[in-house]
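In full, the data:

***
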Amino acid sequence: MSLRRIFLGVWLLSSGAHAQAPSKAECAGAAEKAQALREEKKLQASRKELLTCSQDACPKAVRLDCVAWLREVEVSLPSVAIRARGLDGADLADVKVSVDGQPLASRLDGSALAVDPGMHLFRFEFADGEVVESKVLISEGEKNRTILAEKKPRPAPSAPPSAPASAPSAPPGDALKAPAPSVLPWVFLGVGALSAGAFGGLQLWARSQRSDLEDSCGKTRTCTDAQVDPVRTKFLGSGVALGVSVISLGVAGALWIWSPSRNQSVGAAPLPGGASFAYSGSFLTPPRSPETDRAPLVCWRDASLPVVCGAGVHGGV
C-alpha cells in the first residue's frame, strides 16, 4: 500500500472527531499493543492499533514510530481476491464469504480483502444455499491471492434398485414334483409292531407247550406227532412273524428316509411250508446327477429262504 493511502487513513482518523482524540497514555498503549499483535502475526489487529497511535494527538515520538510500523505492516499484510463461478462458468457476485467463522464479505465486488497470514478456512455460501469450503495457506506479504469457489453439480437421485430378474421356470415335464404324503410308512410300522407281538406270543405259547411235553411224554420219549406238530407249527409261525416284523420295520424306515412316489404296491401270499411278502415302489434317492435316479425295491421271505430286499426286482418267491 502506498504512503498516500497510509497518511489518508491517518488523516481520516484524526479528522473524524477531535473530541475522541486518544490521550498520551492511550497512544503509548496502542503502540505497545500493536507490536505484540504484530509478533503474533495478527496484522489486521496490529494495523488498527497503529492507526490509533499515528494520529496527530499522540506524542511526536510515538506517532513517528507508529507511522513507520504501520508502513511495514501494510507491506506484510496479505490480501485475497475472491471469485465465485456457477455451473456454467459465469462469475457470481451474490456470495457470502467468511474466514475461520468470521464474516469477510456479504457480497463479492472484485475488491481485494485483507487477511492475516496463516492457514485459514474459507466458507462460501451461494444464493441457493449451497456451501463450499476450502482450506488455504496465506503467506505473509502475499498480495491479491486469487481464491476461486465453484459450484458443484448435485448428484442425480439414485434410481430405486430394480427387482432381480427371475430365473426362467423349468418346463413342467422337467420339474421334479414332490410326492404327496404317503400312509405306507405307518402301515408297515403297524404291521411290524403286530408281527413282533405275534412273534412274542407264539414263542411263549410254543415254549409253554414244549415244556409240558418235556414234563410228560418227553421223559419216556413216547410223544406222538399229533402232540409235537402243534408246537412245531407255533415255532414256525413265530419265525414267520419275526421275519415279517423285521421286513415291515425296515421298509417303514426306508420309506421315511427316501421320498416315495405314488407308484407303490404291496402284497403277501401263502406258500407251501411258509409265506411270501413283496413290496414294490419307486424311491427318490439323494440326487447324484441332474436326472434323479429311480429304482423299485422288493423284499420277500419264505420258510426256506432268508429275508431278501433288492432294487429293480418285482414279484415274490
The radius of gyration is 56 Å. Residues 225-257 form the longest helix (33 residues). Residues 79-150 form a domain with the Immunoglobulin-like fold (CATH 2.60.40.1120).
